[in-house]
């Protein structure tokens, strides 16, 4: 497992249904299962919507940015245009811990 940690910002894509809540979007359960699988794999450390925005913050552990793009590209919400990646930045945790308890 890589020691490299990244902050990833994803945002709503053109196919996001603004009339529906998060859980009402197309293929919600498939997307949720995919994301939970990334957590189980140790790739996804933290994630969730940024309140008051159309963005999501993900904290991931990966070898490099290409690995992140590759893993997220197969999410059904990426394929269907509901989410797209805006930025990927290497992140140094200075306070607190991501250690598993």
Q: Name the CATH homologous superfamily.
A: Dimeric alpha+beta barrel
CATH topology term:
Alpha-Beta Plaits
- Spatial strand sequence of the major β-sheet: 2-3-1-4
Which stretches of 5+ consecutive residues score pLDDT under 50?
Answer: none
Mean pLDDT: 94
Assembly state of the chains shown: single chain
Helices, by number, come to 3
Please outline what is shown here.
This protein has 101 residues and is an alpha+beta fold. The chain has 3 helices and 4 strands, in the order E-H-E-E-H-H-E. 26% of the residues lie in helices and 29% in strands.
Structure notes:
- It is built from three helices and four strands; from the N terminus they run E-H-E-E-H-H-E.
- With 101 residues, the protein is α+β, with helices and mostly antiparallel strands.
- It has one domain: 2-Layer Sandwich (Alpha-Beta Plaits).
- Strands 2-3-1-4 form a four-stranded antiparallel sheet.
- A hairpin with a 5-residue loop joins strand 2 and strand 3.
- The radius of gyration is 14 Å and the shape is globular.
Describe the SSE topology.
Elements: E1 5-12, H1 28-40, E2 44-49, E3 55-61, H2 65-73, H3 76-79, E4 83-90
Antiparallel strand pairs: 1-3, 1-4, 2-3
């Amino acid at each position: 497992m890589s020691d490299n940690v990244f902050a990833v910002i994803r945002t709503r894509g053109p196919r996001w249904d603004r009339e529906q809540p998060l859980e009402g979007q197309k293929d919600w359960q498939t997307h949720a299962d995919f994301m939970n699988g990334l957590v189980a794999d140790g790739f996804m450390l933290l994630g969730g919507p940024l309140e008051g925005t159309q963005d999501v913050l993900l904290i991931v552990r990966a070898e490099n940015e290409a690995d992140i793009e590759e893993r997220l590209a197969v999410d059904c919400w990426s394929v269907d245009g509901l989410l797209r990646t805006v930025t990927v930045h290497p992140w140094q945790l200075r306070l607190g811990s991501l250690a598993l308890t």
